[in-house]
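Journal club side-thread
Mid-discussion, someone asked how the predicted structure for our own chain would compare to the paper's figures. Pasting it here so we can look after the session.
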Amino acid sequence: MCGIAGYFGKRDIEVSKIKECQMLMKRRGPNHCDYFLSKNTNNLVLIHSRLSIIDLGSGSNQPFKNNIGDAMSFNGEIYNYKEIKKKLARKDIDFKTLGDTEVLFKLIKNMGINSLESCEGMWAFVFYEKENEKIFLSRDRFGEKPLFYFEDSDGIYFGSEPKFIFSLLGRKLPINFSHIKRYLINGYKSIFKEKDTFFDGLKRVEPSSYYEIDKNLVLKKNKYWEPKFDFYNKKLTEFDIVSKSYELLRKSVELRLRSDVPIAFCLSGGVDSVSLISIACREFDYKVHGFSIINEDKRYEELDMINYASKTLKLKHTKKTLQNDNFFTNLKKQICYYDGPVLTISYYAQWRLMKEISGQGYKVSISGTGADEIYTGYYDHHNAFLSYMKRFKKDEYSKCLKDWEDKVKKYIRNPFLRNEKHFMEDINERGHIYLNQNKFKEYLVDEFNEDFYEFKYSDILLRNRMSNEMFNETVPQILHQDDLNSMYYSVENRSPFLDKDLYEFLLQVPTEFLIKNGYGKYILRESVKRIAPPDIINNPRKVGFNMPLENFVNFNEKKTEKMLLEDSPIFEIIDRKKIRNSFSDKLTNSESKFLFNFINAKFFMEAYS
């Protein structure tokens, strides 16, 4: 795990700018920092900071280069590098290091950029091909690792974080006010649907892509992976599905345990993290150290299940209870590192957990990101499933409805989703997602209208919702924050559920197998029930990692009110009097989220305007 930055174009970047950028990159790579320069038709600057995880020796330091002037700066892990290395060795390609960096470099050099399809991992990289005077920018399939770029008149700047680009550019880009409004009104699920970022002109390299930039600075986008939707294998039995799912998840965990440093595990009381930990403990005899955030709010509290999992699996376990001390100071610090708002309060909490993980000497953590989106983990998945069964499996619908009423409905707070016919009455109804959007629009100085929309992946509502969450609405946002929170403390985060083979297999599973007996994530539960704590596997409650804003902010305090209402660029967007009237110590969930967004947008605009 590392930091990358650089430039390709006509400009001569001063060494002082390179050094300044290197200083900003140290959290991403405290173990080694260097840069590579090349002058031809264009000038190339390639900067790298290294967090050593695999092959701790200096041979895997970067930028990685050969003797003919090719070079690469790579952030991430190629988990199946040993298997790829064996295949390349059969072609008489020799290796001098024990790491994945050299494997990726020589794979691209010898087999071409399209060989990325054979890689299982998470990555962002820049590869320079001197002979043809071109560079390639690429990100992994699901977008676990970030890579931004900015096209200026003199060339292209790139980096793992916006601040790296601003440092080399010599200026910050203007704030994108439209994106701020989108975040305020529609919330975190809206901000990766657009190609916009929080800065005008700053763009993201898209996941599962590589961008080719030639010596004329012409940028061409290419896809190396596109999953296929609505190709279901009707021959699969439930036994086949559960067995194969477990086999692939087990393999994914095994690959992600490859490390030359110890690995920590994030532990909640839910099935996702417990499944991964159970596989690590009981299949690979890994000595798991679990880390948990303890939530004192009863709506989100999982302490009993967390303690039960820890005791049953005999884990070394660290629990972190968050205090409300220095909330505003800490949040401002986090926002400055993010180069943007923190998207949800959960990721303020997770940031504090990463501090605990780092403080105990860990450089790698494992989390359950992606399980909800590939296995059906959200309450609206049940509504969509009921709609599917009502339409296509009428004989089974009554039982499915009763299972939902018995096991699920009592936990649902969203008023839309308490109606089992939510999607039957209107298949396009999405009011449960941008909840109270019209109310929050009233706080704006100027009008902003952007209704909910989604992309078309599948003809089946449930599968289409899951795919939108995977690629547009949920996973990109989570990965963005996972990366920033972990890298702030020089920790690499890994997500075993985001595995190509596992994902592609689950896309083939007929929809009627996804939920059963009232249980979302039925396939995952059945896959691990042999080795996982039964009370967690059999718990239908979806808690979600959340914390109320009121745990950290007392809106009745005069000093808090004064600070939140003092002169600020945010009041070019938000009506000061109206926002004052929203302050309360009794907030609904959506109101709490909106005020958290307001505080974040305020601090962000004050820091970057």
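Post-session note: The chain has a mean pLDDT of 95.
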